Amino acid sequence: MSDATGTGQVLQNECSKEISKINVKKIILRAALVILVFSLVTAGAGYYQVKKLMQPVSDVQVAPKTVYIPPQSSTGSIAALLKSENLIRSPLLFKLYARFHNLDTRLQAGEYEFSAHQSLPEIVQKIADGKVKTYSFTIPEGFTVEQIAERLAEKGFVDKNKFLYLAKEGNFDYDFIKNLPKSKTKYRLEGFLFPDTYQIPKGFGEKEIINLMLRRFKEVFLDANRERLEALDMDLKDVVILASIIEREAKLKEEQPIIASVFYNRLERGMPLQSCATVLYALGEQKEVLFNEDLEIESPFNTYKNPGLPPGPIAAPGKAALEAALHPADTDYLYFVAKPDGSHEFTKTLRDHNRAKRKYLY
């Protein structure tokens, strides 16, 4: 009887232990569930908060802001600058995002234009890509170096005197200008600063702008025509000189190859070019009408008095004029006279030329 009672007591104790274990497991499970739910809620709230901090600071249409990031700026200083301009919500998140995406070492200095509608990732990527704000300027075909310097100085991009000095004395790493003389011509780079529309960032100086224009000359004309130059055995400087005269003489691009043929025909016959454009360059001024005394100016650029090509270009020729100098029309013309509408009458004989002059000039 005592054994049965003892056995029952043992069984009861064992059951109590099992029940206690089950209760503990339930408590642990409930605690774990509570912790899990809390963690998920916290994580969800954190994710929502991070996502919110990465969104644009405003959905209201406002004007873009221009921000200058100085050279050697740290990620933290950039973040603080953007926060002060109310372009990001969290400087800390800016730094963490840039570092996580390995962009913190790629952030570039410069002037940027940001919108309040740009998200933090968009802003970080823009700075990493160096998509700085640019300023535009256009150099028309036929501009001289002095006109180019004046145009750029008016826009505040260059110091005129420094630009002119570099155009005359500056050294630039392009093979096509290495042999250009620094004497004989007023500006060594006359004719080689390619006329076009350019975009430059803030801080671009005189040398950088000249480099940009020389590179455009190489890309647009020289790279595409090296074989033609070699086939014709033509000196690049002579092509540019002739193209610059064509540019200043022809108002209509379709007439440029014809005007080129006139000059080639005269050169082949040993006749002076007699280009009014070269005389105007020698005079250093623009005049609607040249007088006889103007044609007597003592200058190597006076092609009424000096045979052959002048010593250098007289302006910056555009692509069409340069190609006309390489591909002149096949004509027998030796003369041309400008008409009131800007076109020209081309003639083969002096008699016909004088008749055209009486018709259009007197």
Low-confidence stretches: none
Rg is: 38 Å
Count of DSSP E strands?
6
| Strand content bin | 5-15%
Shape: elongated
- The domain count comes to 2
| Lateral strand order in the biggest sheet | 1-2
* Helix fraction bin: 40-55%
Query: What is the count of helical runs?
Result: 12
Biggest sheet statistics: 2 strands, antiparallel
**What is the distance, rounded to the nearest whole angstrom, between the alpha carbons of the first and last residues?**
152 Å
Structural class: mainly alpha
> What sequence of helices (H) and strands (E) makes up the elements?
HEHHEHEHHEHHHHHEEH
Mean pLDDT: 87
Q: What's the quick description here?
A:
The chain has helices at about 1-55, 75-85, 90-100, 120-130, 145-155, 160-170, 205-230, 235-250, 255-270, 275-285, 320-325, 350-360; strands spanning about 65-70, 110-115, 135-140, 195-200, 335-340, 345. It has about 350 residues and is mainly α.
